Amino acid sequence: MHWENEDFKKWICAIAKFKAIDYYRKEIKKSEVVFDDISHVEKNTVEDELISTENREELVKAINKLDDISRDIFVMKFFLGMKSEDIALKLSITKASVDNRICRGRKKLKENYKIS
User: Fold this and answer.
1) Is the pTM of this model over 0.85?
2) Other CB atoms within 10 A of residue 105 CB
3) Given this model, what pLDDT does residue 36 score?
């Protein structure tokens, strides 16, 4: 008889636990993110745009110094937004080769940027 009371208590506790979890998940879905301070939204100034343009031009010059295949990979990946698999198919190389060239190219670009 005593074990029946223990099983009943465990059963009730399990039901209460799962009901609480369901309630919590339902409330999380209802909640909204409220921005109290609109000043967090940044507006680009003319100076920011000019710096961004200059940085982009420097980056393009640095990419142009890479070998032909690496340059093509960088353009397809970062300017055209292609996936590594699609680039590999287009250039008839493996995806691993594309990823390796991106990794090595990034290192070269970082080295060139530090020197400049």
Assistant:
1) no
2) 21
3) 53
